[in-house]
Every structure is written in structure tokens, then in C-alpha cells.
Amino acid sequence: MSDSLPVELICATGLTKEYPRPGGAARVVDDVSFSIRRGETLGLVGESGSGKSTVARMILRLIEPTSGSVRFAGQDVLAASRHDLRLLRRRMQIVFQDPYAALNPRMSVRQILAEPFAIHKQRPEGGLEARLNEMLTTVGLDAAALTRYPHQFSGGQRQRINIARALALRPEFLVLDEPVSALDVLVGAQVVNLLRDLQRDHGLTYLFISHSMPLVRYLCDRVAVMQKGRLVEIGDVLDICEHPSESYTQELIAATPQLP
Q1: Of 54, 64, 159, 236, which residue has the fewest beta carbons closer than 10 angstroms?
Q2: What's the confidence (pLDDT) of residue 4?
Q3: Residue 191 · residue 160 · CB < 8 Å
Q4: Is the whole-model pTM more than 0.85?
């Protein structure tokens, strides 16, 4: 790594999100701050409705925060122009929770995987067809999948296609928004192992959103625990899993079964 590159790839400071409601505003994320170092996986955990996905979408600027700041490789994401934001989005992508809803059923896999290049007006080195074949091979699928449609694949295969699409433009950072929660345990474990291999092989940085502490312990370097929109605990994943200081974290650990 060049000495000129900041160690922290992501730096979120004071992220807050409010939605208007009768009689006031509902604050769904409240003053959340954390950083993610290059090449690491930060787990963001908490029960449903704790604000995890909202935080992730603010980092990617898929939704605008009410207040706070986000820096990506030192660049102010929230101040980026439309042109600069388009360039940033080549470098940071998201894999959504539901592998069934995330793929357009009317598009073939070739169309799905080629779409990022069309949107960003990119021509892959070596040609599009070679890059599409490479993308499928990277996620453990055969090039024959290009002519097929989403309904012809299992849930695990669909999630692999989603991961391949997210990697199309060779990003540095991926948000993984509960990417295995819709899959059965065995298939989910295979996808998690694929994510580990991809991080090792491509130097990726992950924000891994989950409600499963054992899964976070397996995949992540550090963990941040959210409760009711606030960050209540953050630190080394083994330290927090073995010696949680917050009762809420203890409850999360007790509520999810250990991995086999």
C-alpha cells in the first residue's frame, strides 16, 4: 500500500437520519460514527429496525443523511457533485439481502452483468465477453449461465450473480447487506466463504451487515453494535464476542445459534 493512501477507506462521522412524522420527526439513526480500514471487514450488527441498513445507504449516498459526514479515501461523499458521485460509485457497491428481488427477471445474466459497463460507459480491457466470463468464473459459475434468466437459478446462485455484478467495475469497497439471511445454512456458508476468498484475492474492504453474531465473528475483523439507531459498542470482533460490555450485545450473542 502506498504511503500516500489513508489507512481508513471509510470514515463516517455523526451520521443522523430523521423522517418527518405527525408531531415531530422519527430519528432512525442517531449520531453514528465509525471508520473502516482498507482491507478489513467491519460487521454492523443489531436487531431488525436498529438502523443498520440506513447507515449503509447513507455511506453510499443512496439516501441523504439529515446530518453528519462520510469520507471515502479522503473524499467527501456528501459534497460530491453528480459527476464525482458517479465516479465514486465505480469504487463502492452493494450486495442486497434478497437474491430474488435484486435481479430483473426480464434480463438475462449477460444483460445483468453487462449493465454496469453500459451505465458507467466503460469498455472492459480485453473485451466485454471475456470480462463477463471472468466475472462468472470468479464467483464459481459457468459461462453457460450468461444465456439464462434469474428464475433458472437457485437462491445461492442468484446471490453469486449479484456478487459478480457488484464486482463488475472492480470496486474497492462492498456493502454486504445481510447477503446470506435469505439462504439456507449450507448455501449461506458457501457464499460467506466465497466472500472471504474474494476479499483475499482482490483486496476488498467490506461493511458486513448482519443480525448473527456467530457469522460476524467468523467473517469480520471488528464489529459495531447498533441498538435503536445508536452505536452502543465497537471493537475487535473476538474481544466483543467473548467479553461484551453491553447487555444488549450479550443478548444478541445469546439469541443466535453458534455456527456448526
Answers
A1: 64
A2: 55
A3: yes
A4: yes
